[in-house]
Amino acid sequence: MLDHAGQKYDVTIKNLFSGSEEGLIEYFGGITLEDVQPLNVEFNRIEMKSSDLVVRGLSGNEPAICHMEFQTTDDPKMQVRMLRYATEIYDSYGDFPYQICLRKNRRLWSWRRFSLGWHLARRLSRGSSRRL
User: Fold this and answer.
1) pTM of the complete model beyond 0.70
2) Residue 17: is it exposed, middle or buried by C-beta count within 10 angstroms (0-12/13-18/19+)?
3) Which of 32, 50, 33 is nearest to 89 (CA)?
């Protein structure tokens, strides 16, 4: 759980990247979105948690949702959190997101793509019976 200073830092990062969603997703996620619309996603569990960045747009003329999380501290359960966020987004908007976690490590930023839900949804929509 973040302390008050950590929450202020996260809010600052969200505000810094606000309005740059298309470029962020293309650079870090490797996909191009057009007609980007921010989505208001709150992750409800025991605690109230808001998403850092969730947008809907078109990728190759197909609708797509992209979700980015900005992390300033290491979270060993990040994969589980991202999966939980993907299901919350699916419950709210009916599609799995393409996900990116952008993490600050000392002086460098690194990123990781989480796309299980996104790839699963694409397979299901195409009627593929291949196993994951």
Assistant:
1) no
2) middle
3) 50
pLDDT digits (tens, 9 = 90+) for 99-118: 988 887 766 667 677 666 55
Structure tokens belonging to residue 48: 């109230």
Arithmetic mean of pLDDT over the chain: 76
| pLDDT value at residue 127 | 54
What are the phi and psi torsion angles at 50 (to 5°)? -100, 150
> What is the SS3 assignment for 20-65?
CHHHHHHHHHCCCCEEEEECCCEEECCCEEECCEEEEEEECCEEEE
Residue 101, C-beta contacts closer than 8 angstroms, at least 6 positions apart: 68, 69, 71, 78, 82, 111, 112, 114
Residue partners of 7: CB distance under 8 A and separation at least 6: none
Q: Give the Cβ contact number of residue 70 at 10 Å.
A: 21
